[in-house]
Write a structure and sequence with these properties.
The protein has 266 residues and is α/β, with parallel strands linked by helices. The protein contains 8 helices and 9 strands. The strands form 2 sheets. The chain has a 7-stranded parallel β-sheet, with helices on both faces. The chain is globular, with a radius of gyration of 22 Å.
Amino acid sequence: MNRRISRSLTLLAALCVAIVASATARADDYVPTVLVTGANRGIGLELTRQYAARGWKVIATARNPAEATELEALAADSEGKVSIETLDVTDFASIDELAAKYKDKPVDVLFNNAGITGGGGNQLFARKMEWPTYELVLRTNVIGPLKMAEAFLPNVLASQQKKISNVSSSQGSIAGTTNAMLYFYRPSKAALNMEMHLLAIQLKSKGVSVALIDPGPVDTDMMSMLPKKMLRPVETAGSDLIRITDQLSVENTGTFWTFDGSVLPW
């Protein structure tokens, strides 16, 4: 009887070792995936470039991929790491279609990067307020990211890292605002901050962490109206966003950071 028990224990131990070895092998083979919206230019293109250079799989989205020549060249040289997908974050059907395509694909980081300012000259209170532009800013900067988070939540939950990062802006800080300008853009980023803070609270128990990150003034088309000397290199901004996302956890979920890791006031 003792010999039988000993033999059973030996077999059980061997089975446990095999299971652990198999799990370790799977973990070693795991390649993380990031989904980047607005990847055709600027910060989104740089995030795609840097994540691909790290060996990640990148789902890079753009409204008009045929016109995204830099992104296409990057994907062609990525050895299959970068996949380009058509996506308009203001179009729910477009989001749902992409989510259905990647139904069983884990997404470690959902990077809500797509955003617009609306143009400074279109949001001058009591002088020139282009209200349809305001609606587009809200659909792009506020509604789109929340819909993306909802549509791709199963993908995030299925991943190892379970992160949702959002490109916010210090312009969305109510406490940090001292002058009156950008009546469309600033409220959109403040609303993004609130909705993602709510999401961080709700999803914390599921192991999902959410970040709001201000990249600072970056040398992109969006900031072309500012003097060059005020702008940060897009390469630096991209690495800052990735570094803070790397440090994201359920312990610091829902935090509003600026690019150097400092916490911004709401």
